[in-house]
Amino acid sequence: MARPVPAIVILGNGSLATARKIQQLYPGAMIHGLAERVEGADLAYHEFGATLRELYQQDTPIIALCAAGIVIRTLAPLLLEKGAEPPVLAVAEDGSAVVPLLGGLGGVNVMAREIAAGLEVAAAITTSGELRFGTCLLNPPSGYALADLELGKRFVSDLLAGQSVRIEGAAPWLAQAQLPEDPEAQLSIHVGSAERTPAANELLIYPRSVLVAVNADVAELPNAIRAALHQAKIAVQSVACLLASDLHMTTPALREAALELGVPLRFASDCGGVSELARHTVPEATVVSADTVLAIAVASQPLDLARIGRARGRLAVIGLGPGAAELMVPAVKAELARANDVLGYETYVRMAGPFRDDQVMHCTDNREEMQRARHGFELAAQGRSVVVVSSGDPGVFAMAAAVLEALHESSEPLWHSVDLEILPGVSASLATAAQAGAPLGHDFCVMSLSDNLKPWAIIEKRLDLASQADLALAFYNPISRSRPWQLGRALEIVAQHRTAETPVVLGRDIGRPGQTLRVTTLGQLTPDQVDMRTMVLIGSSTTCVFPRAEGGEWVYTPRWYGDKPTS
């Protein structure tokens, strides 16, 4: 399993050069800089503590270029259970010290050595076991699983107290370790897939070398798998993945079983039965148990999942929000981090980055929505994880509708087998409203004034009815060079039902560098004050405006309906 991409967090420009050196070691890692102090960071944040805690709770490895004490005090309230934590390191801003703080079982010392090597300094490793033996016995490499953490801690304590150890089974990563080996030792490190009862004098490590081919129609599938493994005397911890026919790719029971067992789910072409499916997909493994619904195959080495069938393809349609990184929802950030392919209008794709070297960007013109949607399904049908990018919210004049339309009109079974999810974002209308206060605090109507995809007559009818209904209005695509007159006509229609004093909010590039916010009135608004990048919010009859203490104005539409308050 690939290691999560770390976040590099800095507090000042003095740390930026060191952060860039570290970034070269981890493709895709982003530098988070304090907005008020750092220029040139990949992402800006406003509060160090909240940012660090959010990253930690998302299991993101953290490389903080600051004093270790600051990091410790910040994360202390979250430190509940050792073993359930991402790697956390403190690095001196000039790169002279690398201190692993948390995540000993998550590879923090490995990261510390990597960073120290890149900075040409020594890592401040303090873990007794690693210092003595040169490896963390409780953190076996990818492809292996530790049986019992608590017994493991006791085992390492016994080793540190001076006892010797013998190794049973293949453990190639321990060949260079400085272990006190003795073939007659009472302590043993046992590596194998057989089911065993953990003992205090034994460190059990299971190679993930077992594949279970399953039929989707099995009742109580997780329990059936556990029972079959027990009967075959094979440890559940040795299961590398579940394998099923791609005809059952959308079966919820398969997905739920894999989640309950904590293993990946892979699919391959139906070969006439579970035994044949296992043999055909993993020819190097030996089928040790099989019936009509389950087949267990065991290999001599941990299985490489990249060579076993394919994953169910995933297509996520995401909204970046208005542009500011801090306004992007965490689920969207996580989706971008795991994507193989990212599709979208080039401006929006660049906003979603930076990306790792192994991630593929597919940038297209903003008018090629249906082609982009179909391309996304073609890639996802190959088993890839695909993201289609929109600005704002993907369901508001953006890509979600195009993606669903492409699926609706398709008869391709593999497209309908794709795991499709729409992830929301902060829309431009909501971002602008939040900057102004709450002009959309009551019922409101969101409209696009572009007649590229709908007749202007429909726009005029909807404008008239929404204005009559006394709804607050939010205008997307208000004006462009090819549509210079529509906004003026729209304002004429609204003015038939609103007074000239009706508050209007103009938000340009809200959430992006150079954003501007202006409050005016319907009577003062003219089309030349607006361009394509401006969000226009027109209040209802109850919308209120009053001064802000720091200058400017607050705008809100109360949730009650009646007379405006008098100032």
What's the short story on this structure?
This protein is an alpha/beta fold. Helix 12 (369-380) crosses helix 13 and helix 16 (456-468) runs parallel beside helix 17.
Describe the protein.
The chain has 567 residues and is an alpha/beta fold. The chain folds into five domains: 120 residues, Rossmann fold, CATH 3.40.50; 64 residues, no CATH class; 98 residues, CobE/GbiG C-terminal domain (Nucleotidyltransferase, domain 5, 2-Layer Sandwich), CATH 3.30.420.180; 113 residues, Cobalt-precorrin-4 Transmethylase, domain 1 (3-Layer(aba) Sandwich), CATH 3.40.1010.10; 128 residues, Tetrapyrrole methylase, C-terminal domain (Methyltransferase, Cobalt-precorrin-4 Transmethylase, Domain 2), CATH 3.30.950.10. The chain has 17 helices and 28 strands. A six-stranded mixed β-sheet has the order 3-2-1-4-5-6, with helices on both faces. The protein has a five-stranded mixed β-sheet with strand order 13-12-11-15-14, with helices on both faces. β4, α3 and β5 form a beta-alpha-beta unit. The longest helix is centred in the C-terminal third of the chain and has 13 residues. The termini are far apart. The relative contact order is 0.06.
